[in-house]
Give the backbone structure.
Amino acid sequence: MGGDPRLLGSECPGCGALHFPRSDTCPYCGDRPSTACELPSRGTLWAWTTVHVPPPGYHGPVPYGFGVVELDGRIRVVSRLTETDAGLLRQDQAVHLVLTEVGEEDGTQMVSWAFAPSGRDRR
Amino acid sequence: MSPPGHPAGAEPVDIAGVGIHPFGRFEDRTITDLGVYAVRQALDDAALGRSDLQATFCGTAYGGVASGHKVLGRLAMTGMPIVDVEAGCASGAAALMLGAGSVRSGQYDSVLVLGIEKMPKGIIRSSFFDGWQETAGLSATPAYFALRAQRLMADSGITDHDLASVVVKNRRNGTANPDAMFRSEVTAEAVLSSRMVCPPLHLLMLCSPNEGAAAVVLRRRDSTAGAIRLRAATLVSHLPGSVLSESTPMSGLCDDSIPAPTARAARFAYEEAGVGPADLDVVECQDTDAARELMSCEELGLCAAGEGAGLVRDGITAMGGRIPVNPSGGLLSKGEPLGASALGQVVELVRQLRGDAGGRQVVGARVGLAHTIGRGANASVVIVGR
């Protein structure tokens, strides 16, 4: 999987907040319509853990990293993380968006987004 | 904003009777069986007959259609309004809020509030998540608990050992509670060496979903000496913006100042009851996981924000401490049957205030607080007094 993935969100014309997933009504101020936009693909790590037991309805690999990343100081997004060892991650670490395979459903390979450590933080 | 539906100075409601079916796993009993058991006990405790009640509010999250009707049908108590109420972990408290409001407003003199649950085993498949979230692995509920725990530990200087201490305290308390699922002590070493579920949370730091029922009879105050008064029954949902809110959004604002649902419910309940954290003698709070107990205590104002670690290190929340928290053993000992959980806390507080709590009695308890927080988000705070 190559290319330059981006998360699609929206931006409120009233309060300026970013939302993810995209929403036609701002979940914070109720203004509408929100404007579709691409979210920044680089950010910093805000919280993280590791999932060892597959949750119901999930058919992909375990363990997998899981956490919250902060993008441009404007939005915090819940995300899978490529790093499965929580001990190797640290607060405010630089991360960037990638695609990751999350198992097959009905013979189709499913793909989701994840954040991976960036630059010299890459392991 | 004042608590909607809770006018200042509203006449208190009495808790005339309580009943509980032990929390645990009961392969040979249906959810209806559990409810029948708790209702019979509550009616006996209130010395009321089946025709003395005018409405029933039944909290359940997984019970399905007409769960309350099935219980009351077995007791020949149908005919009155029977309303099932779902508010996640706060379902029983939501039923209590509605029941209390109906008595306070004069609509009814006596109502039954019931909570019943029989939870699936394992990580719960919740209808809350959409299919795409399950596919992407974003529906791992304990992982959200773990992220909250990590943030709390960073903000409040809480260590793995502090989390283990919460479990040790609650499991010790649970040994004196015959209604608890787990009634054996654990050591901090055992907690920290139990299987890692989602770091920093080990298996023994997480409560078990299970089965149980609890019932409370509310009556308009009749100046009975020694009656237990329901001084506040408050329920709120979340304000938007917090990425780790129990509302489980996929994103949030970069803003740490958004008030937590528990803090808002507590503020409204303290206003309604005319008491503050310093007036409390005993607290039953949501300890879905060990970190959640400390977060709940901070949000309830039992200590200043960021000082939760001191509650366990200094024994403040232990039996005999300044404010014992979860003398019942908490969810870590009792397990969590969602619909019954909040009312189980109220049953515990009533027993504490009556001096009927046996080996886990908080001596001289006069004012107690019960708290739940869970998906929705829903947060409840109930205050009882004598």
The two ends of chain B are 28 Å apart (CA to CA). Chain B touches chain A at residues 122-125, 129, 131, 134-141, 143, 146-147, 150-151, 154, 196-201, 240-241, 243-244, 249-254 (CB under 8 Å). The domain at 13-122+206-385 of chain B is CATH 3.40.47.10 (Peroxisomal Thiolase; Chain A, domain 1). The mean pLDDT of chain B is 95.
